[in-house]
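G., before I forget:
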Amino acid sequence: MSKKINHIQILIVLLSVLMTTLGCADKVRIRNSAGEEHGLLVDGQSNSGHVNDRDRVSTSITIDVGKLRASSSTNEIIAFTKSRPVAIRDNVNWTTHRDIEEIAFSDKIYIPVTVWIVKGPYTDKLLKAGNAAVYTIGIFDAENVGIGFSEFEIINKTSMTDASTYYNFAPTADPDDWKNNVGWKDDRINIYYLETVSGSSTTGRAVGFSNFIVLGENFGDIAVVHEIGHSFSARHKSSPDFNKKCIMWPFYNTSDPFLYFSEGELFRMHVNSTSALNSVYNARPGLITRSCVGNVSSDQCVDWRKRLWDDGVLLAN
Amino acid sequence: MRFSIFFIMIVCGFFLCRTEIIAQPLNSDIRAQLLDYLTGSCEEGEEDSFVEFVQKNEQAVTPVIIKFVQDGVPKDFIKNLEATTLRLYADRQKLLNEKSNFGLSEENLEILKKESQEAFTKRMTKDFRDGFMKQTIFGLSLLRSKDAQDLLNKISTDKNHPYQRSAENALILLKKQ
């Protein structure tokens, strides 16, 4: 009889322990879900030490993130979803109790872009620029970038006086010559369709990772998204962590289309203070900015290789 | 004794040659990499640029570039072009029908929507072919061999050559540097 009681007591104790460890996991609630899948990266302290970027993917609006308490390092939630910018909440007050912390996505960011067609024929270049706008939006939407174009203005400068002076952008060229003589708008990304960039008609360049982009006349329409990525502070990616389908691969092959940004790169595009989103558009006023330029990773900077979803043959990591 | 020295020299020579062969990437790899650069769009200003690639592999790419300039676009590339342009057109039309946040003016959006598949294919094929040939001629200007320089000079002075202007531009750029 007493042996039976002992077994029951042990069972009750085990169940209590199980309830305490599993039932009291902290949760993150998405405040304004659009009904799409959400991806989370969470920082805090677990029993085994500091947690940096614990990942979760779920269609639920309340997502179990495991048991966390306040860390002496970072305590934050980073969230990704379709058609919304990356959301970040820092200084999350994780406690030893069961926490339900909320995070909200901002509305999609709409930015204006101006295209200056310097070398014609104008209609051909108009169609190229139009293609570029369409393909860029296709990739932005598919890759959860959360950015659209409020305006994709195309200006014809092919008949300006001395247009041919500005056809070729040499390695040592001064962008101010194009800004002052062809045209320039301070508050946006400016794209110039020229003849060559550093001697090549298929080369493009976001000069100094800025909002000044020059393209050779045969630059791929789908590859314009790559140059815009540079304006958003994104850097080149290479194997083995990435492949040719990465938008930030150094060259684009027409028969092998671009497919993805890693979540680590998306994070940088939104939070880096040098990203045109912040430095030119001020599109995230009052929101967190950081300096995660290049391939550095830390508690503050998500690993640039981090992917929450599979990217073609490269699996989520 | 003499035979032993001769034998040792042969063995050493064999290993030296072998090391040399292994150290050089295979020509087929170089050709494939070169094609990647020539059939796509490249980035200038960071590592992995086309210029760096050509200069680093100058010996291996010289005959390939000269052949491309002389023979024109490779047949396997042309073969892929049709499928590529059809896919690109289908992708664009699908996006145009599904989405509306491109920021384009109504007028420009209409121009895009009205472009027929035939017109798109023709325009894009020309764009890709021009890109390939101009980039190849640009590559030619980076080579130091006499054959390459002679060919570049010949094209730059041939007013009937479809890429005469590209050769001329390449020479101007060379002189500036």
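The first strand of chain A starts at residue 26 and ends at 30. The domain at 2-103 of chain A is CATH 2.60.40 (Immunoglobulin-like).

More on Monday.
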